[in-house]
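Hi C.,

You asked whether I'd gotten around to modeling the 136-residue construct. I have! Everything is below, sequence then structure, no commentary in between.
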Amino acid sequence: MSRRRSTRLTVALVGSVGVIFAVGAATASASPSAALHGGTTIAAQVTGERSGQICRITAPGVDMPWRPVGSDGRVALDTGPVRGGRHEARVVCADPRLGDASVRTIGREEDVFTGHWAPAYEFLHHRHLEMLTPRG
């Protein structure tokens, strides 16, 4: 192999490794996430959010106050007692300095079950047996 061809292969290899690292760094950037779950209340754990933001759980018939995100980027949310059944809940966060214009959904809207039978309904829902769970 000539020296010139060897140099080209080395440059190509180093360039492709650089591209792989750049793509990996771009896709590994932290984005906020939320884990919702039911029970007697609707609760969520938000991670990866910027400190100073405020978050809350929204769902039809649920009125929850905003909670500040801690310096570690986490906040635990709990609605308090809500009526039993299925709730289409989501977590929203905002910048308190910008107001309503900065409100955005963290994660996605999820069906969450509350009440006495919540663990059984959650089990059925996660196994795609929604036809056995109550509507609304």
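If it helps when you're writing up: The chain has two helices and seven strands.

Thanks,
B.
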